[in-house]
Amino acid sequence: MPTHEEFDVCVIGTGAGGGVMIEQLTAAGLRVVALQRGPFLKPSDFDDDELRTVIRDQVFSPDQIETYRYDAKSPTETGKFSMTAHCVGGTMTHWAAWSWRFRPDDFHVLSTDGPVAGASLADWPITYDELEPFYERAEWEFGVAGDAAGNPFASPRKKGYPNPAHPGRTASARIARAARKLGYHPFPTPMAINSQPYGGRPECVYGGACQQYGCSINAKATTLSVCIPKALATGKLDLRPQAMAREITLGKDGRARSVRYLDDKRAEHEVFARQIVVAGNAFGTPHLLLMSTSGSFPQGLANGSGLVGRNLTFHHAAAVNFTIDEPARSFAALETHVALDDLHASDARRGFIRGGVVAEFNMLMKQPLAFALTGLPGYPATRTWGSDLKDYLRKFPHAIGAVGILEDLPMEENRVDLDPSIKDHYGLPAPRLTHRQHPNDIAMNRWFTTRLLDLADAAGAVDKWSAAAFALPNERAAMKGSAHFHGTCRMGDDPKRSVIDRWCRSHEVENLWIVDSSVFPTSGGYNPTLTILANAYRVVDHFVHEAKRQNL
Predict the structure, then answer these.
(1) pLDDT at position 384
(2) What is the pLDDT, as a whole number, of residue 469?
(3) Which residue of 169, 370, 513, 542 sits 20 to 30 Å from the alpha carbon of 186, by its own alpha carbon?
(4) How many domains in the chain?
(5) What is the CATH number of the domain that holds 534?
(6) Maximum Cα interatomic distance, the chain, rounded to a whole number of Å
(7) How far is CA 422 from the centre of its chain?
(8) pLDDT tens digits, 484-512
(9) Would you say residue 207 lies in a domain?
(10) Residue 510 within any structural domain of the chain
(11) Mean of the pLDDT values across residues 407-419?
């Protein structure tokens, strides 16, 4: 008989995937231990202090270390390249709350567009129709505000949004009028921020501090505000913050047996569970699996395919910032109020496949210090001091942004692995990111940048600056600052070409599950969080069903 306590399930990570799993598993009566790197923050810990939260990054991931290289022949840089949050609730805690469903074709890119040289395209083993009821469930659990009839290109749905769309502002009205002038079909951006009281949480007061900030009033839906309180109320959750998972061990029977983790003092602990769910995001999950070596898996746990960490994708962003002849006051609004979906589908006339959604994007216009320190990309570097700086800062209330969230094609050589020399805050090998852009991505970014500049002109831009991710002639830009990463433990039916099956269960370790964005075979042209949530609801229903049948 074991002398240690054994839980039904250990969940590593409490963000979009992990938070849903935790809530639903505890609701089903299972005893869950949840491990989360970083602290358990409360709404009172959040404010709109830009210096503390954004510039100095003292709230969400002050100890984060990653390394990056363009390809295997390039030098390695050390720093922080992903916009993650290390706290209970994960990166959802400081997300902007854009809540997009993928479209049906996003689940079968290979079948729709065919193979592309240099890319490792794969169809998802599930379809949009299978995921649709779980999209609906996620929207209603998290109180998404939107207009279901507003987007003529939207995926099929059986039910509208639970909350009405947020009212527009000066900036969004300008973009909407410009979009219509160009023949597009603008509509309110779906947002998981309350437009009215919902789920015991208040409506938004439009303070502007959303992306990169926690919500001090809980109007923004996160797993911290929606899932974790419900799970704790069951009495079935042992929540352990400040717990950095460093290894998953195997038993003699080939099943995952325990998780070893380090606390904030680097002291090691071990927790045992009959089922283990990894939800550490597309960086943290492969990082943990690759550190979990054994005689059975010398290259990392569940890595017989050699694909753990490979096929890393982001979203590349074409963007434009511009000023108008009246105060836009983008800082007193949501990050986005209006979007257009006309350019998502592949069009052979463009010279590339795929596309993405275009939306108003005012993150920088909510951060006067960042605006002053870094400026609008492409703006002449004459703003550093004195009258030039003052002239530049007078543009701040008049500034508007727009962005294209563009699909990044997967390539096997783009990956997360263990840095051979750099250690992280815990003394563990730092995750190393290798990522270069596929020519399709570069062509897409150029094309969308031109469309966005046209949009700015149609909106009456006084000044405008292109903020393309691939600023020509430099096409070796890293995806630094991205919060969208996927693909490093892709799901599939073939164990030789995927890490997990359609239920997000390891092909090789039967009690190991992965439920985060690392399972995405392709990235889609939309923000990923709603799809992570929907997939987690799908997986946990199956998990609980199998548990009741004692099939786990």
Answers:
(1) 65
(2) 46
(3) 370
(4) 2
(5) 3.50.50.60
(6) 76
(7) 25
(8) 899 999 999 999 999 999 999 999 999 99
(9) no
(10) yes
(11) 96
In a domain, 412, yes or no: no
Q: How far apart are CA 302 and CA 370, in angstroms?
A: 42
For residue 527, what are the contacts with CB-CB under 8 A and spacing of at least 6? 96, 98, 99, 100, 315, 405, 484
CB distance 198 to 143 below 8 Å: yes
Do 249 and 297 fall into the same domain?
Answer: yes
Q: Tell me the backbone φ, ψ of residue 152, rounded to 5 degrees.
A: -70, -15
Residues 266 and 298 in one domain: yes
Asked if 268 and 308 sit in the same domain, the reply is yes
Inter-CA distances, 60 with 98, 115, 235, 547, Å: 20, 39, 27, 35
Q: Are the CB atoms for 479 and 316 separated by under 8 Å?
A: yes
- 3-class DSSP state of 176: helix
Q: Which residue has the higher pLDDT, 55 or 128?
A: 128
**228 lies in the same domain as 307:** yes
Element containing residue 225 per DSSP (H, E) = helix 223-226
pTM: 0.96
Q: CA separation (Å) from 410 to 170, 266, 311, 329?
A: 38, 36, 5, 38
pLDDT of residue 206: 92
Residue by residue, DSSP assigns 388-441 as: HHHHHHTTGGGEEEEEEEEEPPP-TTSEEEEEEEEE-TTSSEEEEEE----HHH
Handedness of CA 478, 484, 488, 491 (dihedral sign): negative
Q: What phi and psi, each to the nearest 5 degrees, are found at residue 263?
A: -85, -175
Compute the residue count for the chain.
552
Can you say whether the dihedral through the CA atoms of 286, 291, 294, 299 is positive or negative? positive
User: Is the confidence at residue 481, as pLDDT, over 60?
Assistant: no
What amino acid occupies position 475? E
Measured distance CA(221)–CA(95) in Å, rounded: 9
Is 173 in the same domain as 233?
no
Within this chain, do residues 158 and 130 fall inside the same structural domain, yes or no? no
Residues 256 and 290 in one domain: yes
**Tokens 């836009």 -> residue:** 328
Task: Give me the domain span that covers residue 336.
Answer: 148-189+315-407+451-477
Of 277, 280, 246, the residue nearest 263 (C-alpha): 246
In this structure, are 140 and 249 located in the same domain?
A: yes
φ, ψ (nearest 5 deg) of residue 274: -80, -25
Contact indicator for 225, 94 with CB cutoff of 8 Å:
no
Q: Does some domain include residue 303?
A: yes
Exposed e or buried b per residue across 287-315, where buried means at least 16 C-beta atoms within 10 angstroms of its C-beta: bbbbbbeeeebeebbbbbbebbbbbbbbb
pLDDT at 379: 56
